[in-house]
Design a protein that fits this description.
Length: 181
């Protein structure tokens, strides 16, 4: 099974939802989930996954696989969204939850002689509705400028900074809570 990048998924969804479309969405997919009164959750929920990759970040003899970094990225984003009240739910047919696709684009080291060395990470975050149509997509960036850490720790700090940028974006939270902008 091949993996599809978030950009290709976004383009395909835009083509499928073009004006003049004759088929209507299934009523089972369009109906919202009714939550009990007094439920503490903000959203209908979301399901987060990342685009698998065989790439590795390399610097000399050091290397980190993108899949390992993406898994850490997914875990930290899930934890941050839980703190914001956006809960994870399994992605089932007919569910009204949003799907969040993460694609780690680049990990860059910044060697420095005078300033602090650092790491930069960038990724795209694509939010799809229950019908797999894009609701929101944006690129995010994080950086780490810490001394006396291993490159693995610097990458993790940069990912954590990027997660804070994502959950700090009000459009991300609105898209996950309401399923639209």
């Amino acid at each position: 099974m091949k993996t599809i990048s978030a950009a290709l998924l976004l383009a395909a969804a835009l083509i499928q939802s073009a004006p003049g479309q004759t088929e209507s969405p299934s009523p089972a997919l369009a109906s919202p989930v009714v939550e009990p009164a007094g439920a503490p959750t903000l959203s209908r929920g979301s399901s987060i996954s990342y685009v698998k990759s065989d790439r590795k970040w390399r610097l000399g003899f050091r290397s980190e696989p993108y899949n390992k970094m993406s898994a850490y990225f997914q875990k930290k984003l899930e934890e941050a969204l839980e703190r914001k009240g956006v809960h994870q739910v399994p992605r089932l047919d007919g569910s009204s939850c949003c799907a969040v696709s993460l694609e780690l684009l680049e990990v860059t080291s910044r060697p420095a002689m005078i300033k602090k060395p650092g790491m930069d990470v960038s990724a795209t975050v694509t939010i799809l509705d229950a019908n797999q149509r894009p609701v929101y997509a944006k690129g995010f960036r994080g950086e780490s400028k810490t001394l006396m850490n291993t490159y693995g720790h610097m990458i993790n700090h940069a990912i954590e900074a990027m997660v804070e940028n994502i959950v700090g974006d009000p459009n991300v939270i609105k898209a996950l809570v309401e399923g639209r902008l």
